[in-house]
Task: structure prediction
Amino acid sequence: MSEQTTHRRIALVTGANKGIGRAIAEGLGALGMTVLVGARDPRRGEEAAAALRAAGGDAHALILDVTDPDTVQKAAAEVGERFGHLDVLVNNAGITGSGQVSPADAHDQIPSTVDLDMVRTVFETNVFGVIAVTNAMLPLLRRSPAPRVVNVSSHAASLTLTSDPDGPFAALLPSAAYTPSKAAVTALTVQYANELRKDGVLVNAAAPGFVDTDSNAHTGTLTPAEGAAVVVRLATLGPDGPTAGFFGAEGRLPW
Ligand code: NAP
Result:
């Protein structure tokens, strides 16, 4: 029997099996949405979805490697067949390129010596993956009465913040792969927002802050739920909400 209904709000979060993505899935589930837990590993995705269901939410694992066009197309087809539409897309899946190390220990992204293959790999996931997933899901988003897209970026994507020699970002180690990839994500956010404004699709970028996850070897100071809050807010904007914006917990961020 078809599970399609015009009333059921469906959200897809990429990279939702752990970290901030999982907390975003929990937050959207707590608001009554059906949450599709995007995960490249079926077992990890199913474990996360089962935990969300055990907590009372309606969650389903969706196999989705954002760098694998085949899984992206299959995921879109599955969402279409099962639910008929998509209300929220959160492009959360991301990698630093440096593995699971503290940003203070990542010495491999100095611009003059960075490995170009590492830069390509980071862009493949963090940038090209966002385009691939967004374009595959857009036909389903267009069937929603209030479609929302949130791209998970970073304070490090702000050229204003990172170019301030007296600001806190000047003290961080150089980041020739990750930081430019997130700046590309915010730039893409504006491009999508401008294209889709007339269609009522609100597209914004979010910076979760420095969150305790595997990606920084658990040196982050915020909980995943704290980092997820701004994403959940942008994913559930009302009709007069902003589009083409870049937000953190503290409000609008400079580009
Ligand atoms: P995390 O704990 O390492 O989680 C990353 C998630 O992305 C995992 O589910 C991972 O899946 C998934 N992923 C990686 N490559 C993927 C691919 N090709 N296809 C599908 N999923 C993929 O990292 P996190 O800290 O929660 O980061 C989540 C997002 O927040 C990222 O975009 C990150 O850049 C951003 N962010 C994080 C912080 C922070 O302080 N933590 C700050 C600013 C922005 P696997 O489990 O299979 O690896």
